[in-house]
């Protein structure tokens, strides 16, 4: 997918996910979560090239200071991800975020200690991560799940789960009818 096609997809995603978005121009100019994701794409590309890990980290720290969103350049982020009110979002080095994920402010995809290998969460497709949710360790959140605000998630959640509490427990997610 080309640069401009991806940009159009990102802007359409923000307009679809945020009822307060009045125009694509507003999203382009004023949405820090989108700016953080765009910077992450650049830093991730650098991270994958030999000898460019330090510049990738430095750029990611610049993005953090400008947006309030910290995404490690090693993290893998899917398509149509939207970070709403991004301040305080932290996504660790070995985290994986699927497609069509909605992330609210204050979410952490973090580790639980200095261990080798995968040490951050894997988030499936079509997942909602509520404000302040903390997902810690090499856990997996299944497709179609929702993690409640301020939940502290320490265990895997199967697909289509509602994950709430401290520590969080998962239960089947019941779709509501409008």
From TrEMBL:
<comment type="pathway">
    <text>Amino-acid biosynthesis; L-cysteine biosynthesis; L-cysteine from L-serine: step 1/2.</text>
</comment>
<comment type="similarity">
    <text>Belongs to the transferase hexapeptide repeat family.</text>
</comment>
<dbReference type="InterPro" id="IPR053376">
    <property type="entry name" value="Serine_acetyltransferase"/>
</dbReference>
<dbReference type="GO" id="GO:0009001">
    <property type="term" value="F:serine O-acetyltransferase activity"/>
</dbReference>
<dbReference type="InterPro" id="IPR042122">
    <property type="entry name" value="Ser_AcTrfase_N_sf"/>
</dbReference>
<keyword id="KW-0012">Acyltransferase</keyword>
<dbReference type="InterPro" id="IPR011004">
    <property type="entry name" value="Trimer_LpxA-like_sf"/>
</dbReference>
<dbReference type="GO" id="GO:0006535">
    <property type="term" value="P:cysteine biosynthetic process from serine"/>
</dbReference>
<keyword id="KW-0808">Transferase</keyword>
<keyword id="KW-0198">Cysteine biosynthesis</keyword>
<dbReference type="InterPro" id="IPR045304">
    <property type="entry name" value="LbH_SAT"/>
</dbReference>
<dbReference type="InterPro" id="IPR005881">
    <property type="entry name" value="Ser_O-AcTrfase"/>
</dbReference>
<dbReference type="GO" id="GO:0005737">
    <property type="term" value="C:cytoplasm"/>
</dbReference>
<dbReference type="InterPro" id="IPR001451">
    <property type="entry name" value="Hexapep"/>
</dbReference>
<keyword id="KW-0028">Amino-acid biosynthesis</keyword>
<dbReference type="Pfam" id="PF00132">
    <property type="entry name" value="Hexapep"/>
</dbReference>
<protein>
    <recommendedName>
        <fullName>Serine acetyltransferase</fullName>
        <ecNumber>2.3.1.30</ecNumber>
    </recommendedName>
</protein>
């Amino acid at each position: 997918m080309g640069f401009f096609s991806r940009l159009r997809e990102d802007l359409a995603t923000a307009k679809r996910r945020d009822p307060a978005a009045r125009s694509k121009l507003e999203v382009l100019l004023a949405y820090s979560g989108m700016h953080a994701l765009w910077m992450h794409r650049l830093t991730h590309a650098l991270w994958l090239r030999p000898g460019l890990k330090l510049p990738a980290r430095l750029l990611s720290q610049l993005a953090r200071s400008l947006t309030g969103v910290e995404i490690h350049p090693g993290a893998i982020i899917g398509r149509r991800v939207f970070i709403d009110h991004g301040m305080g979002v932290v996504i660790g080095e070995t985290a994986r975020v699927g497609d069509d994920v909605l992330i609210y402010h204050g979410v952490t995809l973090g580790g639980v200690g200095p261990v080798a290998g995968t040490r951050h969460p894997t988030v499936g497709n079509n997942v909602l991560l509520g404000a302040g949710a903390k997902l810690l360790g090499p856990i997996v959140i299944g497709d179609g799940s929702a993690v409640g605000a301020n939940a502290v998630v320490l265990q895997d959640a199967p697909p289509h789960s509602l994950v709430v509490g401290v520590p969080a427990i998962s239960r089947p997610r019941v779709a509501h009818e409008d």
